[in-house]
């Protein structure tokens, strides 16, 4: 019963954030959404902030689990970008993009929320790093591009684009189009023959030394 109650509180906190926003998220509203007494929040989590932090991690685990199989099936950088576009639409429609923006803002004044939001993003970064390591291995960029750094840059870019879309949808679309152009270049590199790939690697080595 304790585990079931904690899960109801975690799900209730996430639903409250999505449906009412962080400004209206309180012990009362979370308890009402979860269908439990307010006292259980403090019994299981100690405070509303600690519950929100746990809910942030819980939500991120759920979202990553939802997309893990699709990520494992991606066969190119172009497919990765297409997946990102589709996920962006799904997550925005579900209210998760707006929730992320509010958590990022709230984390500026709450160390617990900041740590939890960073940990949630870290789950996505780990998945992206694994995918990028696999996909880059098939291109002349293997060994020259850092998958870990690219995963962080990609996550940061998409977080920024998702939040930016709220005030400038056309600008956000242009940013995604620019990333698609880069993915197209990577696809061209993937299709090069062995001699051409060696020439690209040679040029990259010279540029790296310079």
UniProtKB/TrEMBL annotation:
Q: Which residues bind DNA?
A: 26-45
Q: Which Pfam families match?
A: TetR_N
Q: What is this protein called?
A: TetR/AcrR family transcriptional regulator
**Which PROSITE patterns did the record assign?**
HTH_TETR_2
UniProt superkingdom: Bacteria
| Keyword Magnesium in annotation | no
Q: Where does the HTH tetR-type domain lie?
A: 3-63
Q: Which UniProt keywords apply?
A: DNA-binding, Transcription, Transcription regulation
Q: Which PANTHER family match?
A: HTH-TYPE TRANSCRIPTIONAL REPRESSOR NEMR, TRANSCRIPTIONAL REGULATORY PROTEIN
